[in-house]
Amino acid sequence: MKKVSIAVFLIILIAFVYFRVIPILNQTVPYTYDQGRDFLKATEIIRDKHLPFIGPTTGIQGVFHGAWWYYFVLIPYLLFSGWPQGFYFGLFFFNLLANLWFFWFLKKNFSLAAAFFFLGIVSVSTFFIKTAFYASNNTLAPLFILTFIYSLYHLFDKKKWQYLFLAGLSLGFVFETEMAFGLFIIPAFLIVFLLFKDLRHLLKSLKNICAFFAGMLIPIGPRLLFELKNNFLQTRSFLAHLSSPENIHPLLFRAVAEERFRSFWQYWSGLFYRENLILALLFLLALSGLILLKNKAAFPKKNTSLFVLILTLIIFVFSLLYKNSFFWSYYLDGIQYLFLFLMTAGFYLIEKNKKISLFAYLLLTVVIGTNIFALIKDVSGKKNVSLVGLRADNKIVSYFVENTKHQYFCLKIYTPPVIPYTYMYLLSYYADRQKILYPKGDFYNNQCYYLIDKDEYQFRVDKWRDENIPKNSKLNKTVKFENGSRIELWVKN
């Protein structure tokens, strides 16, 4: 059995690494406005030694995520000397360590089979693969849900203030890395906490209360300092957003409920390989194990599962109170780990029931089989690497590295949404390593390159051309790329 366990672990680990590292090596990882902006921010922090107290923008004007994402980005920036792919490798390694740590936690406190079940789903999950290399602040929130579940389990088991501190710390980081999810889960946590007699008992101690809020204060601290310095700018902006009818287009309750059901189903189906409908329906049965809570399951397992189940239901109810549509699909990124923990707990309870334990091993066989199938299908499939994401922008910038011969040149860039942070970071990266001189914004030697990304709204491109290309110039050369971008060299008469 030990050899079988090692083989299963290696299969799952290989799948986990393969589906995350190959896109990084191929440079097909997402590289957008946000990534370019955040990578430039890391450069700015190092260069100017200016520590920010707020992070990237949210969907609400004047309200920001926490600054911790920028500090996280600094780690791979320093380790890989600003190498663009280094950011993605840094996120991948952090993701790998977090999931292996939780695998160890499940093996120790549940069972090896439950740990394999958990990691096997994560390894080929559509959602978890994406979050392992999508370099954005919201991808950190799910990982702090793991530390939250860990703290919750030990809170029921040992009832020590340290785990209240860790719970507060985890929830604070969830709020700072994806503010929308934090706004849902923190009040939901407080409500569910009060429903459990054994947890309410902890509130009799001032030390316990202070430990929880001290934990939350650490991640939220920089935001509070920013608020104090700026006359509570974000707080006022957020309240204005809630009260302003101009910014909110309320839906009927039925429409809200239908949209939330669709959203939560997408969260659920995203747990599985290529969002496979059959797998999504099949593994709903694993949740049925939770009805066996009355069995002789260990106390912390029983109560942690029940806590997470009620917490998830309350989050759904809270989502119905928001009458506007969810603008971004990732507002609740992290809830997937709550779903997966419930499913893993259900699997464990089925496994421990001798009458139906065979069904648990059938589910585990499906998980392992999916890993093997996914690996074989992807490795054997002969396919060309698409010119997308970082690969596309890097190839375009490489054109200037190869053709400007370390001389100054003029470059004007059009890319939706207007500010070309992506190209700005790559140009600065090559310039810092003396492979290129950073371009000027005005015609140099009577010529200028125009880099124009594809835009489905051609009128915006036409308007930009009219405003930026001098009338007394003519097109000298055009280079087209597979992704629809083009480089044009214009020369003044």
Q: Assign an overall shape.
A: globular
Instruction: Quickly count the helices.
Output: 21
Please list the strands of the largest sheet in the order they lie side by side. Answer: 3-4-6-5
> How big a fraction of the residues is strand?
5-15%
Please mark out the parts with pLDDT under 50 across 5 or more consecutive residues, or reply none: none
**Termini distance?**
79 Å
Which sheet architecture does the biggest sheet show?
Answer: 4 strands, mixed
Q: Percent of residues in helical segments?
A: 55-70%
Q: What's the helix-strand series? A: HHEEHHHHHHHHHHHHHHHHHEHEHEE
Based on CA atoms alone, the radius of gyration comes out at 25 Å
Instruction: Look at the helices and sheets and give the structural class.
Output: alpha+beta
What is the overall pLDDT average?
92
Number of domains: 2
Number of DSSP strand runs: 6
Explained architecture:
With 493 residues, the protein is of the alpha+beta class. The protein has 2 domains: 2-380, no CATH class; 389-492, no CATH class. Helix content is 65%, strand content 6%. The chain is built from 21 helices and 6 strands. The strands form 2 sheets. The chain has a 4-stranded mixed β-sheet with strand order 3-4-6-5, covered by helices on one side. The model has no long low-confidence stretch (mean pLDDT 92).
